[in-house]
Amino acid sequence: MGSLRRAFDQVMQSRQFHTALIAVAMLAGLSACASHPPAPELTAPTPPPPSVEAPPLPTLKPPPPKSRPPSSETQTHIDDITLIGLSRPEVTALLGDPQEQKDSSPGHTWIYRSGSCSAELLFLLDVVRNDDFVVDRRIDGTDGTPKSEQLCLRRIASHHGK
Predict the structure, then answer these.
(1) Which of 31, 89, 122, 145 is such that its CA lies 20 to 30 A from the CA of 41?
(2) pLDDT tens digits for 20-47?
């Protein structure tokens, strides 16, 4: 029984040690709270000063942008020939009957030639308007500038048109 008594004494001493340790920690926590100054009193926030609206400024319109004269490359003339969106009868009235026609999937291609230049027009069916219209064009035999393409189209129109 003596050994049992010694074990019990050790546990009791251990429990006493833990209890003392917890008591010290609680006292330290309480003393920390006591050393801080009290929290400031809460007061209602002050309302912001009334807003003062600035007098409206007169509205000034900016000057219109100055337009640059278009270069000769991009300049569109009144008599330029525009083919995209034209129907078959409109193209025929403008350029005459095509020299060659091809059925191409998915539409029809009309080919016009005059000298070294040629124009191929691709027509597709517009189901809303129930007619074929030019959706793309290719002009060969020119230097690729809009001016030279227009010269080619005018040559075709004067040769095959009215």
Answers:
(1) 31
(2) 556 555 655 656 555 556 666 666 677 7
Strands 100-104 and 117-126: unpaired
Looking at the DSSP bridge assignments, the partners of residue 120 are 111, 138
Name the residue range of residue 16's domain. Answer: 1-34
- Provide the pLDDT for residue 78: 58
Distances (CA, A) of 3 to 9, 13, 71: 10, 15, 114
Q: What's the CATH code of the domain at 122? A: 3.30.1450
Phi, psi for residue 130 in degrees, rounded to 5: 55, 50
Residue listed under structure tokens 């403008």: 94
Please indicate, yes or no, if residue 124 is contained in any of the structural domains: yes
**Are residues 30 and 92 located together in one domain of the fold?**
no
Asked if the model's pLDDT at residue 66 lies above 90, the reply is no
pLDDT tops 80 at residue 72: no
For residue 5, being part of any structural domain is answered with yes
* CB atoms closer than 10 angstroms to residue 105: 4
Structural domains of the chain, count? 2
Tens digit of pLDDT for each residue in 89-112?
Answer: 999 999 999 999 998 888 999 999
